[in-house]
Design a protein that fits this description.
The chain is of the alpha/beta class and 472 residues long. The protein has 15 helices and 22 strands. The structure holds S-adenosyl-L-homocysteine, iron/sulfur cluster (SF4) and FE3-S4 cluster.
């Protein structure tokens, strides 16, 4: 689920958090954390920061100041794991320089490889799975005595609902709020059900409370996170009422019209009309849906165990456009899945054109050990062919994104300003409802980060709308 104001895939590059306290003397020890993978991992790192904070650990961006180095890892594709292994070797010099420095691997790779990771990567002291972060204080103590520390137990009920995450790298405008964990779908290519465990929904009251708190602190945009948000389901035992995703969305939208609400990811089989009508009803629920298709071919969809057909998916896209006419739609696509032929691949190209995606995250298939696909099907599409197909769909998407942006030239959008343009500090940057990035010249309007402004679009590239300030 690559996301919202911080696109989940933008985040997949790995990022170091900034210190949340500038007074280095306040903490007896410091940790450095880098996060990889989806937004859920980034959200988890903020839970980890809160747990460590209670133990007297402050965050640092400076590796040489760290007493504890943590990598919150991703296993989704082989390349993601290779990146982590490479990064770990780079920590060796810090280990040599500072005796007592601990290195911990958190997240999905920790869960997938368990204690094997300690054998494979000698410099790792701790291996901690996504449901075991509460045990970090004990594991750190163990590791400090020179033992290797591991906890990779998955849980059926852990949601960290009571832990207030510490926003580390925040722009103070947008924040992730985790609403559920795990995944009960068994897409045959996917490692997530094995690394994140069973699906469970977080207490709705705690989600609302966290969101209210963020809004009171000045945040303007919240992205509700889950691998499959549409299957959110939580029973309020005080009145026996079951809260669905549509109801949860509504509760967050009602906090304030000044608070934008986004969410990710929606599985096409689970997104309901009720959710679509809720989005249409509230202007502060963004008209943007990330709806991963994976493939446009029915035989491949079946092998992937996605549980929908191309016809069904197209009907869902039609329904979205009927209920929310200006809805932005993005997707995830995998090329070269087991047995995929050129003809099957062309069905993917066709469904992309049909769906007119504004944006797509595209990958070639990477077999993951332990998944259904790795057990049942041969990974038989040669790598060059997988990559050729990937290049083809990237080109198709390039055209679709450009066309979609060209259609916006001349329109005026409400933009939430989230920072300066990276390319030119004389420009502000923000996103519109449909999650498109817009930039416009600062001039002398007294605009600040976190302001909503109307921007008229004059030009575009495939990735950015370029406009001018109209009014607050
Ligand atoms: N829960 C989200 C997806 C999470 S993983 C959903 O159901 O849509 C993000 C994306 O990574 C997936 O949508 C898929 O496109 C891609 N992905 C997952 N496993 C992969 C694999 N083995 N090889 C290549 N891409 C993969
Ligand atoms: Fe993986 Fe499928 Fe679950 Fe998404 S819905 S996390 S692709 S198993
Ligand atoms: Fe996310 Fe990667 Fe784990 S995509 S759930 S961090 S395998």
């Amino acid at each position: 689920m690559d996301l919202g104001a911080k696109e989940h895939n933008e985040l997949r590059q790995g990022e170091a958090y900034q210190p949340f306290n500038n007074d280095p003397n306040q903490y007896k020890k410091h940790f450095y954390i880098e996060s990889y993978g989806c937004a859920m991992n980034f959200a988890d790192s903020e839970v980890v920061a809160a747990i460590l904070h209670d133990q007297g650990f402050g965050a640092t961006k400076d590796l040489s100041k760290a007493d504890l180095i943590l990598l919150n890892t991703c296993s989704i594709r082989e390349k993601a794991e290779q990146t982590i292994r490479k990064r770990l070797t780079e920590f060796r010099k810090f280990k040599v320089q500072k005796s007592g420095l601990l290195v911990g691997v958190l997240g999905c790779m920790a869960e997938r490889l368990k204690s094997k990771l300690l054998e494979e990567e000698k410099l790792v002291d701790m291996v901690v799975g996504p449901d075991a972060y509460r045990s970090l204080p004990i594991l750190i103590e163990e590791a400090e005595t020179g033992q290797k520390a591991v906890n990779v137990l998955l849980s059926r009920d852990e949601t960290y609902a009571d832990i207030a995450p510490i926003r580390l790298d925040s722009n103070s405008v947008s924040a992730f709020v985790s609403i559920m964990r795990g995944c009960n779908n068994m897409c045959s290519f996917c490692v997530v059900p094995f690394t994140r465990g069973r699906e469970r929904s977080r207490d709705a009251h705690s989600i609302v409370a966290e969101s209210v708190d963020l809004f009171e602190k000045g945040y303007k945009e919240i992205t509700l996170l889950g691998q499959n948000v549409d299957s959110y389901y939580w029973i309020d035992e005080t009145n026996d009422h079951a809260i669905t995703f549509a109801e949860l969305l509504e509760k967050i939208a009602l906090i304030s019209p000044q608070l934008r609400v986004r969410f990710s990811t929606s599985h096409p089989k689970d997104i309901t009309d009720e959710v679509l009508y809720t989005i249409a009803k509230y202007s502060n629920i963004c008209n943007y849906i990330h709806l991963p298709v994976q493939s446009g071919n029915n035989r491949i969809l079946q092998l992937m165990n996605r549980t929908y057909s191309r016809e069904w998916y197209k009907a869902k896209v039609d329904r979205i456009r009927e209920i929310i006419p200006d809805c932005g739609i993005s997707t995830d696509i995998i090329t070269g899945f087991c047995t995929e032929t050129e003809e099957d691949h062309q069905d993917t190209v066709e469904i992309m054109k049909y769906s007119r995606y504004d944006y797509a995250y595209m990958y070639f298939y990477s077999e993951r050990p332990g998944t259904l696909a790795s057990k049942r099907f041969e990974d038989d599409v040669p790598e060059e062919e997988k990559k050729r197909r990937l290049t083809e769909i990237v080109d198709v998407q390039y055209q679709l994104s450009l066309k979609s942006n060209q259609n916006d030239v001349g329109k005026t959008f409400r933009i939430l300003v989230d920072g300066e343009s990276k390319k030119d500090t004389g420009f502000w940057k923000g996103r519109n409802d449909q999650n498109k990035v817009a930039v416009f010249e600062k001039k002398d309007h007294g605009i600040k980060v976190g302001d909503y402004v109307d921007v008229k679009i004059n030009e575009c590239t495939k990735g950015t709308l370029l406009g001018e300030f109209v009014k607050f």
